[in-house]
Amino acid sequence: MARYLIKICYDGTGYCGWQKQKNGLxxxxxxxxxxxxxxxxxxxxxxxxxxxxxxxxxxxxxxFDYSGSMQDKQLLLAFNRYLPDDIKxxxxxxxxxxxxxxYQAYERSYRYVLAKEKTPFNRNYSGYLLRLxxxxxxxQSCIENLLGKHDFxxxxxxxxxxxxxxxxxxxxxxNETESYFIFDFTADRFLHNMVRRIVGTMANISxxxxxxxxILEILENRCPRQNLVIxxxxxxxYLMEVKYPPKFLDESYNPDFKENEMTNSxxxxxxx
Length: 272
Hints:
Elements: E1 2-10, H1 27-39, E2 46-47, E3 56-66, H2 72-82, E4 87-95, E5 107-115, H3 136-140, H4 143-146, E6 148-151, E7 166-176, E8 180-187, H5 194-208, H6 214-221, E9 237-243
Parallel strand pairs: 3-9
Antiparallel strand pairs: 1-3, 1-4, 2-3, 5-8, 5-9, 6-7, 7-8
């Protein structure tokens, strides 16, 4: 039995998210059913993060165990032969038998695309906040107070499985094009809905012409239901990249430790 890392991109529009649900088709379900078609057995595929309904990914990572005779390239071709057009496997590689896509990630990056105008063509691939007056410099002024380690309870949806709300935001940029504002975030981990709520809140601060210190006040209050904290639509969110310690990507690495060895940030993680 070997463990494999799989890199996936998908359009999340038609799915209820990554994680299997009772009411709706999930990307995890499609991936596992596809693997079963050519492997002959049901196998769990565990992802780096459980994206919400409508959230997209350019680089979702997951792992699964496989004992068949197909090699990496053959597995990739088999997946893409049977997967629907809105999901594609980009890469498959054999990794350490103790690799865990969910718990060993030490850095994740997301992009949020916020449209200046909603159209029939961008409605599934960008977010739009009705009647908000957005100013690039005003939103950029919020960045310095978000960077670093903070308790992000104010921007996270309550989840009893995640008692620790400390995240380290390492990088944030906001750029403007003719039609969009592009937000890029990198952190060790993110809380449920954290990216979407930060985007919505910065947009709200811009619209109301509030001080950049407003972000600090929201962080310190640790109240996720404040009037200023709004959640941007899921359709604008993209998982861009996930990083792992190189040793876990080496198939020969098999130390004498527990399989669930984690990085410091390895707590249950959701991308929302």
